[in-house]
Design a protein that fits this description.
Elements (H helix, E strand, L loop, with lengths): L1 H38 L5 H5 L3 H10 L4 H19 L2 E4 L2 H12 L9 E5 L26 H8 L3 E6 L11 E2 L3 E2 L15 H8 L6 E5 L5 H7 L2 E4 L23 E6 L2 H11 L2 H6 L10 H5 L5 E4 L10 H16 L3 E4 L5 H13 L5 H5 L11 H8 L2 H11 L4 H8 L6 H24 L4 E5 L18 H8 L4 E8 L2 H6 L10 H10 L6 E7 L5 H13 L1
Helix pairs in contact: 1-4, 7-8, 9-22, 13-19, 16-17
EC number: 3.5.1.99
GO biological process, one term: fatty acid catabolic process
Enzyme class: hydrolase
Length: 548
């Protein structure tokens, strides 16, 4: 008992030190901004913050906007949003040194002088990548991840790291070290996750470009919940070297790293900058495919598949309306829209995603929590992963007639043999080819899909793991998928929500209805999807949706 007490005291000390570091970071930001404003009282902060990234970038390159004016304006705004939402874990103070060097060296790179925020799990030299775990505190990264190296070579200035949920296997944003991050648009709502700190900071206007990761919607949830845009590319389009993962080594559900910004043109600029020789030489496993300008700037009418529901998670009234209204606008603009029949999403979620992520019976996932004091927001998953095989089998059998979805989750969290894992990977490949065949049969260019929304209330994502169906499908398929906000929740949507029943009418469906409530005025997005390696076409489609 004494040993355990001492251990816990040691852990609490580490947490307290990390929280003090976070506090110090905010103080450093405050002092840096104060010094700058005293020396430059006439800087027009409002006009700088109102510039979209491509315009800001142009002004930085031609010298009409000084680098330090932009940098300290964003440090100031980021500080304000961090104070309101608790989204920043650390200020990268070396960014000020990088800024001074950039001023001396002059224009270099497509993102010259652009301040960029970085998700906690992406390595920045000399800083922790914690994933919300105490055990990773005080273990600074030896070098920058490839993505951060390329950003720096393109002239960008990474300036803060942002909060994540413990383990990253969640679409809320809370951990024991840094606490809960709030949605900048409504503090009772979650910003989404796992790139939740990015969502809050970009959504609140404190960062003009953010970099996050996505293994089930981790870029798309925060962007949609906070009213901004994001792109989850094909898993290997951008390098994942030097990026932490919630479950290391699993190949069933493809993770990706991607950008988040206020508009689509900013995402395109970021991809243009990242898809360069530096990326391909620093990580030779990334295919050397530079950004295809011709595809992105094409104005040819598109043939677009669409669906309003996946028949697994019933869309909220606002989600359904978002797809319908977008479909109508696209048709009016001369595009062709074709209904796409989505089937077996339940099988994909349970047999591919849950079973694929936890093919070892959850051993790797559970191992992450060894020595941690608390399991934040993933209690059920942790408990199930920890349960012995016989108990999972028994619970699955008992639950089947009453709560079939719960039964399927437990049944698919068992340990698989190597033979079974290979079989599973083969089955996922087959499914992907069938999906593409259906796509090609309809002669589609892209697909318009619902995106879960509006933002759920804080604490609800942990109870609603099943609601990842709309996003996780495209991690299993490994298709590029982006989100664009298209509408806001109306009083009529809120009224209609009272009749929300769900397809299973189980505890999860009832809970989701509660989680959606109280969202009038909150943004709702749609998902834009393309075939693998067609990020430029995906962005072109997103741009079209955004414009309309």
């Amino acid at each position: 008992l004494l040993l355990r007490w001492r251990r816990r005291r040691g852990l609490w000390r580490k947490v307290a030190e990390a929280q003090q570091r976070q506090e110090r970071s905010l103080v450093q930001m405050e002092e840096a901004v104060r010094r700058f404003r005293e020396q430059n009282p006439s800087v027009n902060v409002v006009s700088i913050l109102s510039l979209p990234l491509p315009e800001l970038s142009k002004k930085l390159c031609d010298g009409s906007l000084p680098l330090d004016h932009v940098f300290y304006t964003y440090v100031g705004k980021a500080l304000q949003i961090a104070t309101e939402t608790n989204c920043i874990t650390e200020y990268l103070q070396e960014s000020e040194t990088q800024l001074r060097k950039a001023k001396l060296m002059g224009k270099q790179g497509l993102l010259y002088g652009v301040p960029v925020s970085i998700k906690d799990s992406i390595d920045c030299q000399g800083h922790d990548s914690t994933m919300g775990f105490i055990k990773y505190l005080n273990k600074p990264a030896a070098e920058d991840s490839v993505v951060v190296q390329v950003l720096r070579r393109q002239g960008a200035i990474p300036f803060v790291k942002t909060n994540v949920p413990q383990s990253l296997i969640s679409y809320d944003c809370k951990n024991l070290i840094f606490g809960q991050t709030r949605n900048p648009l409504l503090y009772t709502k979650t910003p989404g996750g796992s790139s939740g700190g990015e969502g809050a900071l970009v959504g609140g206007g404190g960062s003009i470009l953010g970099i996050g990761t996505d293994v089930g919607g981790s870029l798309r949830f925060p962007a949609a919940f906070c009213g901004v845009c994001a792109l989850k590319p094909t898993g290997n389009r951008l390098s994942k070297r030097g990026i932490m993962a919630g479950v290391v080594g699993q190949k069933a559900v493809a993770a990706a790293v991607g950008p988040m910004a206020k508009d689509v043109e900013s995402l395109a600029l970021c991809l243009r900058a990242l898809l360069c020789e530096d990326m391909f030489s620093l990580d030779s496993t990334v295919p050397p495919l530079p950004f295809n300008e011709e595809v992105y700037s094409s104005t040819q009418p598109l043939r677009i598949g669409y669906y309003e529901t996946d028949f697994f998670t019933m869309p909220s009234p606002a989600m359904r309306r978002a797809v319908r209204e977008t479909k109508q606008l696209l048709e009016e603009a001369g595009h062709t829209l074709v209904p796409f029949e989505l089937t077996n999403v339940d099988y994909v979620i349970f047999n591919f995603c849950v079973r694929g992520m936890f093919a070892d019976g959850g051993t790797s996932f559970v191992k992450n929590f060894n020595g941690e004091m608390e399991k934040v927001g993933i209690g059920l998953f942790f408990w199930l992963a920890k349960s012995p095989h016989w108990l999972k089998t028994l619970l699955s059998w008992i639950a089947k007639p009453f709560v079939p979805r719960f039964s399927s989750i437990i049944g698919n969290m068992r340990a698989n043999t190597v033979d079974e894992v290979w079989s599973l990977h083969h089955e996922i490949e087959d499914f992907c080819h069938q999906f593409i065949a259906q796509w090609k049969k309809l002669n589609l260019d892209v697909m318009l899909c619902p995106m879960l929304g509006p933002a759920l209330r804080i604490g609800y994502p942990g109870k609603l793991s099943v609601a990842v169906s709309y996003t996780m499908l495209y991690n299993a398929l490994d298709f590029p998928a982006g989100v664009v906000p298209v509408t806001m929740v109306t009083d009529e949507d809120e009224e209609e929500l009272k009749g929300y029943k769900g397809y299973y009418q189980d505890w999860w469906d009832r809970t989701l209805a509660k989680a959606f409530h109280g969202s009038v005025g909150m943004p709702v997005a749609v998902q834009c999807v393309a075939l693998p390696w067609q990020e430029e076409l995906c962005l072109r489609f997103m741009k079209e949706v955004e414009t309309l």
